[in-house]
Amino acid sequence: xGQAARVLEEKGFTTIVLTPTPEFHYMVGIxxxxxxxxxxxxxxxxxGDSEGQRNVLMATLEALGKTDTxxxxxxxxxxxxEEPKDAKWHPPEISPIVKVRLEEIRQARKEQK
Length: 113
Hints:
Distance between the termini: 26 Å
């Protein structure tokens, strides 16, 4: 995703990436990120929740319209309806890259607030 965003930006297209770990994306050079407190695999919302998915998509596009500087990170205020540990589709372990960077991600989130 990051490489595609960078290439598109170089060609003059403005991009934005929706992610649950915007701090990591910022560290690896994603041009613009929108953070959401949703688990991987459900970044737009729960399956079948077309209204909620549309709301997330529209908020992401609104954030794109407000960010004119590459490297910016915005945060959406949506809250996932259940605890991540209770989500049955959630992977049993976090991804290796997030595991390696977990403390940095937590620290960056604290600094953003």
